[in-house]
Amino acid sequence: MNENKQPGISFNTIFLKELQFHRELALNSNQLNIDFNATVNFTDDKKQLFYELACNVSDKNHVLSFHCVMVGVFSVIEGAQNMELEKFAEYNAPALIMPYIRELVTTTTVRAGLNPVIFPPINIHAVIKDKKENV
Question: How buried is residue 105: exposed, middle or buried, by Cβ count under 10 Å (0-12/13-18/19+)?
């Protein structure tokens, strides 16, 4: 890979695949558990990537639960590819999808009448890698 060039991969679209939210009337806990899972699928020709990033947010007393799955669709730009799609899936794809999940969690909690849930800085690559190693 030439580090002076762009990866040659297109971010085609992102969409919300799943969304579940529940809250009780009174929340008596503000200690949240945030968890992520990733599913990576390639087309047979390895020219297109479907990256699913799932997020689960809950409190220790189970009075708030949030689950969503966002899917990013990426494809190789013919003649301009400078990065393997597999490597892109490992590092870049989750970092590109993460802001969409962050925004969805924050706006959903605000619309539910809660204080906004704002994620701290998260190294999503490290979270996913650690999860794979501990499976």
Answer: buried
Tokens of 7: 């990866």
> 110 Cβ partners below 8 Å, 6+ apart?
116
Angle between helices 85-111 and 124-133 (to 10 degrees): 110
Radius of gyration of the chain (CA): 17
Residue 4: pLDDT over 70:
yes
- Partners of 108 in the β-ladder: none
Q: What is the pLDDT of residues 37-96, one digit of tens each?
A: 999 999 999 999 999 999 999 988 878 899 999 999 999 999 887 789 999 999 999 999
